[in-house]
Amino acid sequence: MVSLASEHGTDTVPVLTSAEAVSVARRLSAVFAEGAARRDAERILPGPELDELSASGLLAISVPAAFGGAGLPVATITEVFRILAEGDPNIAQIPHSHFVYVNAVHHQATPAQQEFLFGEVLAGKRFGNAQSEIRSKHVRDHATTLWPAAPGRWRLAGEKGYATGALFADWIPVLAHLDEGGPLHVAWVERTAPGVTVVDDWDGLGQRTTASGTVRLDDVAVSDDRITPYHLTFTGPQTYGSFAQVLHAALDAGIARAAIRDAAAFVTTASRPYPDAGVERAADDPLVVHAFGEMELAVRGAEALVAEAARAVDAANEHLSAESAGAASLAVAAARAATTHASVEAASRLFEVCGTRSALASLRLDRHWRNARTHTLHDPAAWKVQHLGRFAVDGTLPPNHGQI
Amino acid sequence: MVSLASEHGTDTVPVLTSAEAVSVARRLSAVFAEGAARRDAERILPGPELDELSASGLLAISVPAAFGGAGLPVATITEVFRILAEGDPNIAQIPHSHFVYVNAVHHQATPAQQEFLFGEVLAGKRFGNAQSEIRSKHVRDHATTLWPAAPGRWRLAGEKGYATGALFADWIPVLAHLDEGGPLHVAWVERTAPGVTVVDDWDGLGQRTTASGTVRLDDVAVSDDRITPYHLTFTGPQTYGSFAQVLHAALDAGIARAAIRDAAAFVTTASRPYPDAGVERAADDPLVVHAFGEMELAVRGAEALVAEAARAVDAANEHLSAESAGAASLAVAAARAATTHASVEAASRLFEVCGTRSALASLRLDRHWRNARTHTLHDPAAWKVQHLGRFAVDGTLPPNHGQI
Amino acid sequence: MTHRSNVEALYPQIAEGALRRELDGELPTGPVKRLKDAGLGALRVPRESGGDGLSWPELVQVWIDLAAADNNLPQAFRGHFAFAEDRLWHHRRGQDQSAWFARFTAGEIAGNAWSEVGPTPIDSQRTVLTAQADGSYRLDGEKYYTTGTIFAEWADVYVRRTNPHRPEEGEDDFAIAIVDTRQGGVTVVDDWDGFGQRGTGSGTTTFENVAVPAENVLPFGDRFPYQTAVYQLNLLATLVGIGKAALEDTITAVRGRERNYSHANAARVRDDAQVLARVGEIAAAIYAAEAATLRVAAAVEDVAAAAGADGASIARLNETAEVESAIAQVVVTDLILRATSDLFDTLGASATSRAKGLDRHWRNARTVSSHNPRILKSRVVGGYLVNGTPPPYAWAIGVTQRDAGTAS
Amino acid sequence: MTHRSNVEALYPQIAEGALRRELDGELPTGPVKRLKDAGLGALRVPRESGGDGLSWPELVQVWIDLAAADNNLPQAFRGHFAFAEDRLWHHRRGQDQSAWFARFTAGEIAGNAWSEVGPTPIDSQRTVLTAQADGSYRLDGEKYYTTGTIFAEWADVYVRRTNPHRPEEGEDDFAIAIVDTRQGGVTVVDDWDGFGQRGTGSGTTTFENVAVPAENVLPFGDRFPYQTAVYQLNLLATLVGIGKAALEDTITAVRGRERNYSHANAARVRDDAQVLARVGEIAAAIYAAEAATLRVAAAVEDVAAAAGADGASIARLNETAEVESAIAQVVVTDLILRATSDLFDTLGASATSRAKGLDRHWRNARTVSSHNPRILKSRVVGGYLVNGTPPPYAWAIGVTQRDAGTAS
């Protein structure tokens, strides 16, 4: 049951309860799943699907209740992400930075900015992202700068890559130095503002329709009221990183589940039994069943860790301390590492259980592996394992930054 | 804080809350851990430790509140098991059948029998087990029989193996046919009753001090009021199997955690760094840390699945149906398979991270692998995977029996 | 100069174009032509007949290195090497094969046309060779997965032979027809739609009233017995070559990486212990896979060298070769698939660019290994070891007339 | 009759007693005696000197099969084969070694005494060989992990050599002393307390004022260069032999299992597809491990055969052998450890009986592989491939005087 948030007028999206959010996500996921293979094959960007997602209210579920939003817990947001990703992980990835920046507004913006930006979200607007710079040596170096133009006015110049979501965004939050070499801030620019160009030049082997292209900022005018402090200053305990990461984990968990689903559909309808197995259906071959069991086991383990991590982020949000934030980061690290492994593995073993015919390119069954392989490289899973290891050996808590 | 259940008089054990149970388990686990290596080396049976366990009230936490017990949920019982197993999995395994038979009394005994047997448990008495027969072809064939002696009186004859806990039990529930080839029942005999012999002939490579020996029943007198119907008739949905299995899973999860703990203690105090690693401490070698991370990850995944499974059993107990019981069985199957893998793997990789010196026999560090390898063969993990696979392929729910 | 050294001299040039052909979906027609001219098809032909007389381990090493240059090529020549081995087998058993050896040394090759997927029931073939009144034959039918035939002068076709002119000669039987693909009526279409091994030329071949002289019709029962092992060995060598190419690409990419994670163990990725360890693991997997594959080649050599032995000895050696190829498949598949997927763990997000094509190694390996699912092979191996159950195909050729088209 | 065939004839008898010796904690003194008498120690001695002249791949196959009979034995002879190889190396480089070859063919062997664990700093040795006024030497000190020395007539001891009589000859240097263990002052204690490889005789050897004639003192710098690879190869062969024994035990146990799980795929365990598949996987792992190990043996053969070559060629071949042994270790360790632990998945709870001793395979493999942690070797391999970093020990012997005692 979706209730309309009538107090915001007819222009606002529905405000959902946790149960509603999960049920709406399930419905949309099933719809998105139908077109996923074709969109991957023909590289059709999911514009209408994103509009449907916005209209459903799912992109507003993290707006705090104080601002008229649903204020749903991380546990629900994570589960919604996982469900959407099972349908089409490209669509699920696009609003990832949207949720991250809603979170940033919650923690870093002024009340006036919050009122304005949350209002935009409740009105169905989307936030993109323009953060990484491709030419930098370290992943977290930045050259984009807000140059002073007049008192309270700036002009933003630079170029950003891997800008997932920017193409479909209404607002693009851009990470930039405030004046040359100054502190990092976020400049909020409208997608349609003069000087903003979004180039759809993303050509990855997977996650092909995420439109994770390049954002060029050519002296874009920005005023003070559209600049927020960089939410990644990490001067104290935070869950900014663990929140962003648990959504990534949920996305890979969704890919893994989709791989099992498609494998089961193929085996029960299209696979021929191996002549020597002595069974009528490939689905009755105990070794095929065993392989499915191993895949199911890995994916359930990953799902359990994602749920556990989301609860840990909620718990840290409730009582924030170095310990609770560290525990959340470790729980999220485990979820990321497990979902990385489970998604790549399930998507690869799909072919082991389905047999020769599943390798036909027209079926696009390899998209699960390509999607998993691409998205799991977002930041290195090996480092999640390293942080878990440091904790296991010495009890060392992970570092305080945005990637864990 | 442990409160005494004064309404049962001074002879009863404390009735614990969930939080108390976990905290008492932690305290006892730490104590048990100290002597674990020596008991394994010299094969010293943990008699005093079991008495301490009984006195603590932990063995009474599953007695229903209606009978004056704590009536704690499966989630708590499972966590208590896991914690105790981390200290010494031999001690944790001994009361496994105790909990299983308390559960059986709850579901299958008459109110009078419940009053009596629960009273015994609240008084600190322990239940053993005499179920498997070694000479049978299938694991679940039985020859032990209650022969009619007089109206309402029977004599019990047979031999049982792998009778974990029987040696230390006050009451031994014996699985037997009621008359030749008759329906299976449970005969409750006192450990000290005439005709009952318990032989400590267990000589496994691991779990060496569980006293899982042979029970001989030589015309033991049993009256009607000490006979309960076989709780494993499985005519309808049940959680008997999933409850027993989730405790097994918790035990292996405890072994896995203990292996990581001992590995970390060794690496941080006794391992020499590899000369080429260029680090001062072995614990700072990134590859050692990475291996720890992988172990930690596998064990966290297993722990998460155990917790998830325990909650699923609680949920099925609340609303029992074929679907909820099947879901619990599948969740438990995943927990069993994951804990099997994680415990064997962590206990084996311990040596990879610790280096040559950890292979000294006197350290008994191989006991973790021997314990895991022995206990995980209790029933085959491959079958847990098979049931998960059947569900993943076809949505088939697992069979309705006591091993899943 | 041996044929082998001529062939090996082509590798760098072939390797250079492999990624481009992959991205453009282009068949390796040029490389195949140059390899034919260099004498790849004559490597097993005896020296006295103008070949190199390579042993099986030597040939398999060539396959592996060729697959490292371009994953498609050994598979494109698979049918040829099987047919050439059949000729060599009969040469060793005393039949004159000089005409064929001359063709092979002149650069002619054969492709495979055995499979009929779809509705074809076991033990029947819809590709029919019809005896003519003059003793010659005509061939009609359609074959799928005719790997390499698009590049070949000859097609090695598994057929049902019928003789409407002499019904008294009994029921139809199964035979091998060697068909000149250069004549009218033979059409090869590259309709292979796999997501890997795209350049193997595994298309569909159609035969319409194609003439086959009687001397090019061979009794099925005379086929060399270890064809199944040779087929598997070709796939194993391809997998290993894919692994080697993947390792090479990984090393190059790691050397070129500049950005490292800020909490990493070392400033340069190439000094990071975790990254190096992962590269080491990938290399080790490929080392063992190559060793296992060459060991299977030695077992195949043993049966190939026993052409003159008694039937029981041949059967025993053949069973060994067959079992060893199955054993190796279980472990090699696992090692290579893991290596081609794990290589991404040493690289950053930029490795996922389609233009770099680093996913092709996994796609190729996945496609090769889908030919015979590893999980089913492991049961065959276990059954042989525990119960002595012979592997299913060791006895399939030359003994029964079971559908040999599945023996790929 | 070759020495090899005499040795191989002993395997069944040795295998029969292996489990009992393991359970009783008994050293394999009898088997070692019989193997010495059969000529195991002379397998690499040239034929013209009364040996078998085996190549390295042939010797390694003997090691593998011997380890399958009793896991301890190849390791117990490891020090001997290293010392014998040093003699063979010098023979090939033109030194007369006939006296040693005669001892080896007569059944005398050498044990190893190189390690000093504990407080010994790198590049120093507390075992001291003191020159006497008459030019002979006296040896004092204590060595740990002296594998095989308890069974041996000779100890191959790494020492610091000092000459108090002639301080003008400069600082102490490092040398090899070959000590007759049959004289007074040499004490060997079997104090090895590992949970695996219990019968390797890896104890402590003490030398108290032991006489060493000058001709038995060898300059450390002259040691044959590929000792590290030989040591690794011995451990690899042992691992593979352990794996083969484990597979054999598994197959026997599966055949003997009667009780099956009631929802199983088949009435008899031996017909259960899952069980057979797991057996197949174990067999495949061992097949690849054996193939990789024999491939390393071929690389060691290459350097051994190059005794007459120039220094640069030797160094290059030695580096290859070293790197290949490290590569193989990464993958073989993983394959064998997994196989010896996974075998329980094919068996029931009764397999955990201590009397059956099925855990010994894992305990033995775990102990062998703890000698050189796999995770560290993988980094060495990766560093070599990516950055060309030479493996740490390839240059350790004969070039620098780095503590060679760690090269085990």
TrEMBL record, chains A, B:
Residues 26-124 form the Acyl-CoA dehydrogenase/oxidase N-terminal domain. Gene3D superfamilies: Acyl-CoA dehydrogenase/oxidase, N-terminal domain, Butyryl-CoA Dehydrogenase, subunit A, domain 2, Butyryl-CoA Dehydrogenase, subunit A, domain 3. Residues 247-378 form the Acyl-CoA dehydrogenase C-terminal domain. It comes from the Bacteria. Keywords: Flavoprotein, Oxidoreductase. Residues 139-220 form the Acyl-CoA oxidase/dehydrogenase middle domain. InterPro entries: Acyl-CoA_dehydrogenase (IPR050741), Acyl-CoA_DH_C (IPR013107), Acyl-CoA_Oxase/DH_mid-dom (IPR006091), Acyl-CoA_Oxase/DH_mid-dom_sf (IPR046373), AcylCo_DH-like_C (IPR036250), AcylCoA_DH/ox_N (IPR013786), AcylCoA_DH/ox_N_sf (IPR037069), AcylCoA_DH/oxidase_NM_dom_sf (IPR009100). This is SfnB family sulfur acquisition oxidoreductase.
UniProtKB/TrEMBL annotation, chains C, D:
This is Acyl-CoA dehydrogenase family protein. Belongs to the HpaH/HsaA monooxygenase family. InterPro entries: Acyl-CoA_dehydrogenase, Acyl-CoA_DH_C, Acyl-CoA_Oxase/DH_mid-dom, Acyl-CoA_Oxase/DH_mid-dom_sf, AcylCo_DH-like_C, AcylCoA_DH/ox_N, AcylCoA_DH/ox_N_sf, AcylCoA_DH/oxidase_NM_dom_sf. PANTHER family: FLAVIN-DEPENDENT MONOOXYGENASE, OXYGENASE SUBUNIT HSAA, MEDIUM-CHAIN SPECIFIC ACYL-COA DEHYDROGENASE, MITOCHONDRIAL-RELATED. It comes from Nocardioides fonticola. Residues 127-210 form the Acyl-CoA oxidase/dehydrogenase middle domain. Keywords: Flavoprotein, Oxidoreductase. It holds the Pfam family Acyl-CoA_dh_M. SUPFAM superfamilies: Acyl-CoA dehydrogenase C-terminal domain-like, Acyl-CoA dehydrogenase NM domain-like. Residues 237-371 form the Acyl-CoA dehydrogenase C-terminal domain. Gene3D superfamilies: Acyl-CoA dehydrogenase/oxidase, N-terminal domain, Butyryl-CoA Dehydrogenase, subunit A, domain 2, Butyryl-CoA Dehydrogenase, subunit A, domain 3. Residues 14-107 form the Acyl-CoA dehydrogenase/oxidase N-terminal domain.
